[in-house]
Specification:
The structure is a homodimer. Chain A is an alpha/beta fold and about 525 residues long. The first copy, chain A, folds into two domains: about 240 residues, 4-Layer Sandwich (Nitrilase/N-carbamoyl-D-aminoacid amidohydrolase), CATH 3.60.110.10; about 200 residues, 3-Layer(aba) Sandwich (Rossmann fold). The first copy, chain A, has 16 helices and 19 strands. In chain A, the strands form four sheets. The first copy, chain A, has a six-stranded mixed sheet with strand order 5-4-3-2-1-14, with helices on one face. The longest helix of chain A is centred in the C-terminal third of the chain and has 22 residues. Chain A starts with 6 loop residues before the first strand and ends in a 27-residue tail after the last helix. The interface between A and B is large, with 82 and 83 residues.
Chain lengths: ~525, ~525
C-alpha cells in the first residue's frame, strides 16, 4: 500500500457563461486560499472557465481565445500549487472539452474528454471532437489519472486504462445538471468505481443556474475502499479541503427530496434573475397554490423587498382568492398590489363583438382574461425593470392547461418542471416550521377562475392520476400501452397523451425554467410541432 | 464503356413527420405509376417514411416499429420494380438513418448512413449510430452504389469506395433543407462528383415544410460526364422519369433569388398551416411593408378566402396607414376588418397609473399597444380557429425591435428569417407583373407607429447598413472586429451586435418560421440567454 499524503481543495464554484473575468477571478481567489491552507492541489469543474453549457458561443473564435487567455491567467496565479481546471482546448482547428493540469504556474498536461454526451440536454458532439488518449501524471509521489464528467459514467472509460497504468488518484470534473435523485446516482457510481479500482476518486461538480439548467454541486471524494471521505453541500459555492489519508466523514446525508427540489428552484431563480442583470421580480398572485409557492421561492431567492406581488381580479375571482392571495403575500412580507381586469376585459369583448358573430363564450374569453393579466405584468416589467416570474406547473405545461401570452408570459417559469402533486409536497414541506402558504390555499380545489364555478378537474383528471401518467410519458418515455399496463384507465391515458402532444406549440413559446426532473420541457425535449404520430 | 439501360423515377415527395399511412401511401402510389411507366427503379428521399426531422419521436419504440411496418408495406407493393427509400433501421438496439434497396417486393439491401451531420440544424448523432460499410448492389446489369445525403458532401465518403469497387450508378437520397443558393451548391457538388468519378449520380431530395425547415426538392441526375440530364422543380411534389442513356436537358434554370425565397416562404406557410390542421389564417395589417408582404405570401399559400386581414389603429395610426392597409387587402381580395385599440389602451393606462408612480411614457406604452393587438388576433384565432401569422422580419428579430406577446404573438412567423432589405426586394419582385403591394407602402419610411412621428431609424441604422452587419454576425458568425474590417462604422457594429445579443430572450419565445438563410433563429442558433460574453 501507499500513502496518500495530499491535501486537495474541491473548488465547487458558480461560473457564468462567457464571463471570463469573473470566472478566472473566482478560480484565482480559491487558488490563493488553497495555497494559504497549504493544499497541494485544487480542482475546479468542467469548462468552468467558460461556464457550461456555452452552446454556440463555442463557434466564435474570440470566445475560444478569451478562454485560453483566462487559462493562462489562472496558470500564472498557480505558483507553488497544482490546479486541475476545465477549459476549451483548440488544437489544429478542432475543439476539445478539455482540462488542464497546472503545476507551479505551468500547464503540465492537457486532457481531452474522451466521452462526449450528445443526448438529453447535451450537444457536445456539435462542438467537440472526442479525445483519444488517457492522461496520467505524477505529482508529489502520486500517480493521478485525469478525466472529465462522462468519462466516469461509461463502463470502459479512460479511467480503467489509467488505473491499469498505475493511477492511484482519479480526478473527475463535472458540469452535471441537477435532477431529483441524481446526487444519489452519482454517489453510488463513485463508490462502485472507487471500490472496483481500489483508487481514490475526487469528483468536483459545478454549482449554479444557467438558463434551464441547475448545477447542484455536491462534490465528493471516495477513498480506495469506497468510503465517502469528503462532501460539499449542494446548491452553494464551497471550497472544501480534504486530507486524503486523514479525513473521514460519517453519516453524511444529502438533502431530502422536497427540500432538495426547493433549493434547486431557489438557486435556478436567483441565478437567472441576477446573472441577467435584474434585481427585482414580479409575480401575479391568483390565490392559488402555484403562484403562492412561486412567490415563496422568489422571496427565498431574492429577498422579500425585491419581489412584488400583483393580484388581478376578474368578475370570476372569489373573495377567498383575494383573502388567500393577500395572506400569502403578508406571510412572506411582500408588497401586494391590486389591478382589476374587469373594465379592460369588457372593452375587449365589446370591440370583438362584431367579429365574433354571435358565437357563444368559450375558451377565447378565458384566454383573454389571462392575457390581460399577462399584459399588466409585462407593463410593470417594462416600466419598473422587474422580471416577470410565471407560475405554471409541469402538469399544466404538459397538458396545455395554460394560456400562451397569458399566464405563460414572463421571463422565467419557476415551477414549469414541477408536477402539481410535487407543488403540494413542496407547500407542505415549506409549512412545516411555520405557515408560509395559507392552509386554505392548499386545501382548496385548484381553479383557474376564468369562468363561473370552474375547477381544474372539469378538464383534467385528478392530479394524483394525471401526474404519474404525465411523468411516465414525458420523463420515462413510455408508450400509451405501457402506461395502461401500469394500471391506468386507457381512456384517461389516451386523453392525457393527446393533450400533451397537441400542446407542443405552446411549450415552444414558453419561457425557460429550472429543470428538476430527468426530462424537462427544454433541451431534452425536442419534439416537432408538426407531428402526425399517434401513440 | 457500358450502357445505362435504365429508366429511373425520381420520387420527390412531401411526407409529414409521423404520418406513416400518408407517407407510405404516397410512396406506393408513385411506385404504381412508375411500374405503369415501365420504370426499372424509383428513388425516394431520406427518411421519407418517417418524415424529416423526426427529432425525439425517434426515441419512441412504437415510432420505430410503425416505420418498419410502413417499409414492409412499401416493399410488398414493389413487385416487378426496384425501390430505394429512406427509413429508420433498428439493429441490436441501435438506430441507423438507413435506406432500403427493394427489388421485386423484397428488401435486398439495407444501407446505413455513414456520415451523420450534427451541426447547424442537424442533431443526427443524438439518435443514430454511423454505418460502417458501403453497399453496392447489382441490378439489371448495373452496379449501383448506395448512400444517403451527407455521404456525398464529405470528401472521402462511401461513394469513393463504391466507385473503386465498380459502381456505375450512384443513388443519393436527401432531406436537405433549403436556404438561399443551396440548390446551386448541390448542383456544383454533384457535377464535380459525377465528373471525378465518371459515374451517373441520382440525387433525390424531399420537398415540403416541417416547422422551421423547408425542403425544396430540386432532385437531379448527372451523367458520367457531369451533364445535368434530369431535374425536378423546386418546391413541389413531382415524379420525374429519366432514361439514363437517352435523356438530356439543356439550359436548365433554377429559380432566381427573390422568386426562390418567395416560393420557399409560400410552401413553408402552406405546409405549417395545413399539416397542423388549420385551414384559415389571420394577419394584423399595419399599413407597413412587412404585413403586406406576409399577407401576399399567405394568400398565395392558402387562397384569398382563407386569409383574414385585421387593421387595429391606435391614436398614432396615420390616415395613410389605413389607406395603404386597406388597399393591400383589396389588391389581394382579402376580407378586411378593423378593430381600434384606443379605448382598451386608455383603460390599461388608467389601471396602471397608480403603479407607474408618475414615470414618463417610454417603451412600456409602445409595447402595450402591440400586446393589445396581439390579444385581439389571438382572440380571433381562439374563437374562429384561424392561425395567427406574425409579420416581423429578421432585422427586427435580430435587434429585438419587436414586442414579445405583441407583434410576436402568433403561430407561425412568416418572414422571421427575411432581412428587411430582402422584404423590399420581394415586394418589388411581386409588383413586377401587377401591383400587389401598394407602391405607397414601399416608398414610405418604415414606422412602428407606436408613438408620434416614430420611424424605425430613430433607433436602428438604415436597413442597408443594419442588414449586412446582422448577416455577417448571425449568418457568417463574424466577430465585431471582422465586421468593422468589412468597412462598417465600429460604433454602429457594436451597437447592433449588443442589440442582437441582448434580445436572445425574446427570440426564445418567438413562434417558428421558415428558414431561408444559411443560419436562422432556430435549430441552428443555440445561444444561451444568460450570457456575459462580450464581442
Amino acid at each position: 500500500m501507499y500513502n496518500l499524503l495530499m491535501k486537495i481543495g474541491l473548488g465547487q464554484i458558480n461560473p457564468t457563461v462567457g464571463d471570463f473575468n469573473l470566472n478566472s477571478a473566482k478560480i484565482i481567489d480559491l487558488i490563493e486560499e488553497a495555497r494559504h491552507e497549504k493544499a497541494d492541489l485544487v480542482v475546479f469543474p468542467e469548462l468552468c472557465l467558460t461556464g457550461y453549457p456555452p452552446e454556440d458561443l463555442l463557434l466564435k473564435p474570440k470566445f475560444i481565445a478569451d478562454n485560453r487567455l483566462a487559462l493562462e491567467k489562472v496558470a500564472k496565479a498557480a505558483g507553488g500549487i497544482a490546479v486541475y481546471v476545465g477549459f476549451v482546448h483548440q488544437e489544429k482547428g478542432v475543439l476539445y472539452n478539455a482540462a488542464a493540469f497546472i503545476e507551479d504556474g505551468k500547464v503540465k498536461e492537457i486532457y481531452h474528454k474522451m466521452n462526449l454526451p450528445n443526448y438529453g440536454v447535451f450537444d457536445e458532439k456539435r462542438y467537440f471532437l472526442e479525445g483519444n488518449k488517457c492522461s496520467i501524471i505524477s505529482y508529489k509521489g502520486l500517480k493521478i489519472g485525469l478525466g472529465v464528467c462522462e468519462d466516469i459514467w461509461v463502463e470502459k472509460g479512460p479511467y480503467e486504462e489509467e488505473i491499469k497504468k498505475g493511477a492511484q488518484l482519479i480526478l473527475n470534473i463535472n458540469a452535471s445538471p441537477y435532477h431529483v435523485g441524481k446526487i444519489k446516482e452519482r454517489e453510488e457510481l463513485l463508490k462502485r468505481r472507487a471500490k472496483k479500482y481500489k483508487a481514490t476518486f475526487v469528483y468536483v461538480n459545478m454549482v449554479g443556474g444557467q438558463d434551464e439548467l441547475v448545477f447542484d454541486g455536491g462534490s465528493m471524494v471516495f477513498d480506495r475502499r469506497g468510503n465517502l471521505i469528503a462532501a460539499c453541500d449542494q446548491f452553494r459555492e464551497e471550497l472544501l479541503f480534504v486530507d486524503l489519508d486523514k479525513d473521514r466523514i460519517t453519516g453524511w446525508q444529502w438533502l431530502e427530496e422536497p427540500e432538495e427540489i426547493y433549493r434547486a428552484l431557489v438557486l435556478g431563480v436567483k441565478d437567472y434573475v441576477i446573472k441577467n442583470g435584474f434585481s427585482e421580480a414580479v409575480i401575479g398572485l391568483s390565490g392559488g397554490i402555484d403562484s403562492a409557492l412561486t412567490l415563496a421561492i422568489a422571496v427565498e431567492a431574492l429577498g422579500k423587498d425585491r419581489v412584488h406581488a400583483v393580484f388581478m381580479p376578474s368578475e370570476y375571482t372569489s373573495e377567498q382568492s383575494y383573502r388567500d392571495a393577500k395572506k400569502a403575500a403578508e406571510n412572506l412580507g411582500v408588497e401586494f398590489a391590486e389591478i382589476p381586469i374587469k373594465a379592460v376585459f369588457s372593452h375587449y369583448l365589446e370591440a370583438l363583438n362584431p367579429n365574433f358573430k354571435g358565437k357563444p363564450a368559450d375558451i377565447t374569453e378565458e384566454n383573454l382574461q389571462a392575457r390581460i393579466r399577462g399584459n399588466y405584468l409585462m407593463a410593470l416589467s417594462n416600466k419598473l425593470n422587474w422580471l416577470v416570474l410565471t407560475t405554471g406547473n409541469k402538469s399544466e405545461m404538459s397538458t396545455g392547461y395554460c394560456t400562451l401570452y397569458g399566464d405563460m408570459a414572463g421571463g422565467f417559469a419557476v415551477i414549469k418542471d414541477v408536477p402539481k402533486t410535487t407543488v403540494y409536497r413542496l407547500a407542505d414541506w415549506l409549512n412545516k416550521k411555520q405557515t408560509v402558504i395559507p392552509e386554505a390555499i392548499i386545501k382548496r380545489a385548484p381553479t383557474a377562475e376564468l369562468k363561473p364555478n370552474q375547477t381544474d378537474q372539469d378538464v383534467l383528471p385528478p392530479y394524483e392520476i394525471l401526474d404519474p401518467i404525465m411523468q411516465a410519458y414525458v420523463e420515462d418515455n413510455k408508450s400509451v400501452k405501457e402506461i395502461v399496463a401500469l394500471g391506468f384507465d386507457a381512456k384517461i391515458v389516451e386523453k392525457i397523451v393527446a393533450m400533451i402532444d397537441r400542446s407542443e406549440y405552446k411549450r415552444r413559446q414558453a419561457p425557460p425554467g429550472p429543470r428538476i426532473t430527468p426530462r424537462a420541457f427544454g433541451k431534452d425535449w425536442r419534439v416537432p410541432i408538426t407531428n402526425h404520430f399517434k401513440e
